Amino acid sequence: MKNYKDFVIVGIDHGYGNIKTANTVTPTGITKLDAEPTFSKGVLFYEGSYYLIGEGHKEFISDKWQDSDFYLFTLMGIARELNREGHNSAKVQLAVGLPLTWVNRQRDEFRKYMLQRESVDFKYEDKLYSVKIIGCYVFPQGYAAVVEKLKDMTGVNMLADIGNGTVNVMYINNRKPISTQSYTEKMGVNQCVISASNAVMDKLGVKIDESIIQHMIRHGKADIADEFSVVLKTAITSYANGIFDMLRRYEYNPKLMRLYITGGGGKLIENFGTYDKDRVTIMEDICASAKGYEQFAVVQLKKEGK
C-alpha cells in the first residue's frame, strides 16, 4: 500500500492460487458460511453473509468478473493492507492486473467489476472497515513484477509469469515490452498439481493430499516415503521441462536472450527445472506484481495530473 495525497493506492494481484497484495499472500479458497463462525480468522462479513477465505484455491475461470469471488478477495486484500497500517477507513485507488493478452479485451469489464460500489462497509476478522473506492487501474500481469529489473533488460529478454492458472509470456527488448509478442497459455502450476496427483494414483494407487505436492514444489522435497517422492519428482520435473518446451515454441533461445521468471511457479522451476542459472533470473518475491501495480499507478496518477 502506498500513501498518495489524501488517499492510498492498494495493488492486488488476483491469482488463481493466491491473492497477493504488496505485503500479504492469501490462498484463494472461499466458502460461504451458513452462520457466523466461532472463530474470525480469515472470515469476511459482507452484505449480510460470512465468507471463509484462505483454505484451498479457486478454480480457473477465464473472466474473473463471472462471480463475486474476486471482488470479495479484493475487499479482503484492502483490509489486510489497511490493518498493517492500523487503519480501518480510507479512500482507495485500486491497482490490479490481468494476463498479458487479455488486458485489452477485458480491462473495461474488470475495472467496472472492481468499481461496482463506491462506498463499501464490511468486516474482516471481526474488524469493521469503511472504504471509498475512488478508481481502478488495470495493468498487464508479469510485466509489473519486473519493474525493478527493467534497467538490466538491454537486448532481447523473455518474461515468463507462471501462475496457478496461466503462464504469460512477453518479450521485453531494450527495456520496452513488445505487445505483439505476448502470449497466454493455460499451463499454470495447478496443471502440474493435477498431473502429479494422477501419477501417484496411477502408479501407487493412493490419493495424495494436494498440500504434499505444493510442499514438494516449493521446497524440492517432502516428508513422505521414497516411492512417493520419486513419483512426484518425476511428474513435477516433466512439467518443468514442458514449460521450457512451451517457451521454445515462442522462440526462446537461451544463447540469444535472457529469461526472467515470475509468479508462484518460479520455485518449481528453481527446484525442478534444467536451465543456465547465469542467463535465467527467477524473481522470488511472490508479491512483486502487486508492488509493481502500485508503482505504475503512481506514474499514471502523475501523468493525469492527480
Structure description:
This protein is 33% helix and 30% strand. The chain has 306 residues and is an alpha+beta fold. The protein folds into two domains: 2-140, Nucleotidyltransferase, domain 5 (2-Layer Sandwich), CATH 3.30.420; 153-285, ATPase, nucleotide binding domain (Nucleotidyltransferase, domain 5), CATH 3.30.420.40. Strands 1, 2, 3, 4, 5, 6, 7, 8, 9 and 10 form a ten-stranded mixed sheet that branches. A hairpin with a 3-residue loop joins strand 3 and strand 4.
Number of domain modules: 2
The ordered string of helix (H) and strand (E) elements is EEEEEEEHEHEEEEEHHHEHEH
N→C terminal distance = 18 Å
CATH superfamily of the largest domain: ATPase, nucleotide binding domain
Instruction: Name the helicity range.
Output: 25-40%
CATH class division of the largest domain: Alpha Beta
SS content category:
alpha+beta
Mean pLDDT across residues: 94
**Total count of strands:** 15
